[in-house]
Amino acid sequence: MKWARSVVMLGLLGFLVYAVYAWLNMPEPEPPREADIQQVAQEPFAPPQVDMGQLQPPGRGDNSTPSPPAALPEGQGPGPSALPVPEQSDQSGTEQPPVQAPLENNSSPSGSQDPSSQQPKEAPSQPKPTAAPAVRTAEEDGPSVSQNSPAPADTRHDPEVVQAQVEQGVSLATDSTDPQQAYLQAVQEAAQLLQSNQLADALLVLSRWYGHPKLSPEQHEQLNRLLDQLAGTVIYSRQHWLEEAYVVQPGETLEQIAHKYRVPWKLLAKINGILPPYQLQPGEKLKVVRGPFDAEVDLTRMTLTLFVDGGRYAGRFAVGVGTDIPPQPGEYVVLSKVENPSYRLPNQQILPGGDPNNPLGKFLIQLSGQLAIHGTNDPQSVGRTGGPGCIRLGHRDIEDVFDILSVGSKVVIRR
């Protein structure tokens, strides 16, 4: 019976891959703006990807060194880095980069300057509920979600029903003596959701199985491929799967809108193809994502994985682990984000930001516990342990993660 179950499971996974591929190749429902066309012409916007070369929301890279099993080559994680950005970063903070012996920051922390010259005003509109039922906690929904929306006709895809199914799947995955059966049920549920065009819920159901220890390598590979495709479409494309299109109000700025949804404004700029000087037009419709994004760092697999909106998988990146301040398992919080951090050598010499010998690279995300996620001046060190710093990513990947995580984002480190 086990071989028959395996055949059925592989068949379902193959169907899911084909269904997602067919959907991704459907024509766009709305023509892109002129700015979008220019953006794509300059540099394609890519979603998170691991083994898939066709996914492209955030992340492109320049490190061709093979990464360890289950880890992504540098540059194939999520993170839109296609757009030029101003000198200031999107978050404010005064925290220093990891300052244990050799680390020091003499650069100015990220500022909170508005991306446009307009003065902030209180916008009359509020964030709208998702077009397709998306599962979120009550706290995330908040008062901005309409309470008058009619219930979906098919209760199988009601958010509460889907959430109950997901929780049941998680319980089966952890408590059942037969996790393969629970995984098969999750795959079947995801297939039904895809057939009903509920991509956001299918992503949530499958996200619960990401990295599950009871799945085989083949199952991990197929699951990761599906998650990459779904995340690229649901989160990083310009299609409105998690929230209805946001209509810009007169005098409203990109930073104000991003603040409402608890994400960095640069992320919205990249998703929507908004170029400098980042001016918005009243009545313009934007793709929005409700944050904040959170991260999980696996020190064994040497990966950093992003999640958003109730635990939906949002891409992964290969990391390297430094020895200046070795990261320890635990829960941490993003305290600040710094561009061009400086670095103190063991001989107390200071390497300023921008110095090609600075091992912290161009971006640093300061965590609680004096830990940090930062770039590197040696892309070949990604995927390896040792060397300076703390948790390092490749050049493109750190820029993407810098623009996705917010001050207050949670970062879980585990082995």
Relative strand content: 5-15%
- Tell me the CATH superfamily of the domain at 47-115 and 291-415: L,D-transpeptidase catalytic domain-like
- CATH fold-level assignment of the domain at 47-115 and 291-415: L,D-transpeptidase catalytic domain-like
Q: List low-pLDDT spans.
A: 28-159, 169-174
Distance separating the two termini: 34 Å
Provide the CATH top-level class of the domain at 47-115 and 291-415.
Mainly Beta
Largest sheet: 9 strands, mixed
What can you see in these coordinates?
With 415 residues, this protein is α+β, with helices and mostly antiparallel strands. It has a domain at 47-115 and 291-415: L,D-transpeptidase catalytic domain-like (Beta Barrel), CATH 2.40.440. It is built from 10 helices and 13 strands. It has a 9-stranded mixed β-sheet. Strand 4 (303-308) and strand 5 form a beta hairpin. The longest helix is centred in the N-terminal third of the chain and has 23 residues, at 2-24. It is flat. The two termini are 34 Å apart. Residues 28-159 and 169-174 have low confidence and may be disordered.
